[in-house]
Amino acid sequence: MSNKSFHIANFGCRASQSEGAAIQDELLDAGVSVAATPFDASVVVVNSCTVTDEADRDVRQLIRRIASRSPATRVIVTGCYAQRAPDELAGMPGVEYVVGNSHKPLVGRLTLNALDKAFTSTGRAEVFCSDIFLEHELRPRTHSGSGGRTRAIVKVQDGCNANCSFCIIPSVRGRSRSMAPDLVLAEVRSLVERGYKEIILSGIHLGTYGRDLDFPTSLVDLIHRLLDDIPQLARIRLSSIEPLEVTPDIISLVTEESRLAHHFHIPLQSGSRRILREMRRPYTPSYYAELAHTIRERIEDAAIGADVMVGFPGESDNEFSETFRLIESSPLTYLHVFPYSSRPGTAAADLPAPVPSHVAQFRAKTLRRLIASKNEAFRSRLIGRDLDVLVLNSGDAISNNFIRVYPEADMPRNTWISVRATALEGDGLAAR
Question: Which domain holds residue 250?
Fold first, then answer.
């Protein structure tokens, strides 16, 4: 184990990944080396998620594995789980600091502090956490991105004002707040100058970007400014946007602007009207289906993905079938499927008629089989067509419409190339 090395273990959404990248960049600038695995590091930053019980369990399992395999390694836990249950994490073996989202900018400094002092196991971590609703401003944190200076995730919005009955995230992220457009432009310009070819705009509730600012603006206006003011910016990709916020202006912008990726991720959650009402989701299945078909009509090759929850309290076989049929008849190309997980403090946690775990797991497996078939059909339609791809590593690239592409010849990484899709290969396409 290196005397001064760190490893960041990221869990959760793209906004969280962006924050993890910012912490990594801060530590690299301080001259600390990166360890390849958490078991080779002096300090591990566990950047946690708490959206489900499984997410919590994955975080705890990693902490215990580090304590077992590398007992001298110090652990700093930050992120959404740390914000939700700091005391629960503070007593875990090897944990030196627990840092909630309210204090996340301190993580770099605390990591350097942990690296500089002798290891002492006190049995309980020091906790840095306060009321997240006191946070009213989103500041930029320049970071190294992901994929080795090919793609960078820029968090332009944080927090959420929605009130979905199943979701714990507003209580650990706070109210919606946006980064000022000038600060976004400065960060993106810096990343592009450092060689990044694709910028992914992310947020907890990205579609609400700009509404909270002193001079309100919108996501569409921000994209126009990025495109106009940074002509060398090669591509923008949008992360998840709620159905009611995928406006005609956004669809038209993606349709007409070649520098915007043909990729929409639009949470669905359920195809049952009643379940959506119980979830407090402000749209209907028919609205969602029409939106997805509109995108497909306007952008033939667009990737259209969704989050879907199965096993919500009271979900009947017929209501699950409604979800299945909506997806089956839709132009969706991929899914993130989650069995419902009760979160303490949410309205859904008190609902009657819980769905047995084995039923929820079966429903999740059924949807995953369905979307695998639809995704294969989507990729098959692209065989013989030319694709614009960004080379991530030798023999590995990603297309404009979010398909992994494997060129037959090695290509220089971090370059744009045009390839012709020749066959299905694994989860992507072979190309030449």
Answer: 134-261
